[in-house]
Amino acid sequence: MFAQTLFVLGLILSVVVAIPIDPYGLSAPAISYASPKLLAAPAISYAAPKLLTAPAISYAAPKLLATPTIVQHAAPALIAAPAPVAVTKVAVAEPYDPNPQYSFSYGVTDHHTGDSKQQEETLVNGVVHGSYSLAEPDGTIRKVTYTADKINGFNAVVEKKGVAAVAIAKPALAVAAVPAITKIGYAAAPALTLGGYH
């Protein structure tokens, strides 16, 4: 089909080019051309596809082995559960000391930081006796002695030992006066004009 179309177009083009052109339009040329030869369509033929035959499928039945032997066992015998044992809960009282007693003490003395403190305390016959002491920032030692019981409550006695160190004021450092900064004035710059535009 494509070849035939090209042939017809080529034939038309050759006819158009062969026509003489009169620039003045005085004479009409005689036009003659031979009729185009048409090409015969090619013979198209095809053969029907060959069908393949399906392969022959065959199988043999599976061979059975010897019949399995089924073994039956007797049902398991049930064993009776033992009779429940009676459990009784017995509340055991924790040991109670009607007259508890304790005693402790500690102390710290650190020469690097100046920290110094001690404490001691005892409990005998329901009465707490104790004391603690510490170094105050002014150099004195504060000692607190206390007792506490169910009848009188908490009672404390505070003592202060030593003389408070008096801080001596350091003389103020003389500071030189800073000279005042003087501003320097500048004359104003002339106005800038560009090419006569204001």
Please name the defining characteristics of this protein:
mainly beta, 1 helix, 198 residues, flat
Question: How much is the average pLDDT?
Answer: 78
* Rg: 65 Å
N-to-C order of helices and strands: HEEEEE
The amount of beta strand, in percent, is: 15-25%
Total number of helices: 1
* Helical content class: under 10%
Distance between the termini: 83 Å
Largest sheet: 5 strands, antiparallel
- Provide the spatial order of strands within the biggest beta sheet: 1-2-3-4-5
Q: What is the molecular shape?
A: flat
Structural class: mainly beta
Q: Quick one: how many beta strands?
A: 5
Unreliable segments (pLDDT under 50, ≥5 consecutive)?
none
Structure report:
- It holds the Pfam family Chitin_bind_4.
- InterPro entries: CHIT_BIND_RR_consensus (IPR031311), Insect_cuticle (IPR000618), Insect_Cuticle_Struc_Prot (IPR051217).
- Keywords: Cuticle, Signal.
- There is one protein chain.
- By secondary structure, this protein is mostly beta strands.
- The longest helix is centred in the N-terminal third of the chain and has 17 residues.
- The protein has a domain of 60 residues.
- The two termini are 83 Å apart.
- A 5-stranded antiparallel sheet has the order 1-2-3-4-5, with no helix packed on it.
- A hairpin with a 3-residue loop joins strand 4 and strand 5.
- The chain has 1 helix and 5 strands; from the N terminus they run αβββββ.
- The mean pLDDT is 78.
- 9% of the residues lie in helices and 23% in strands.
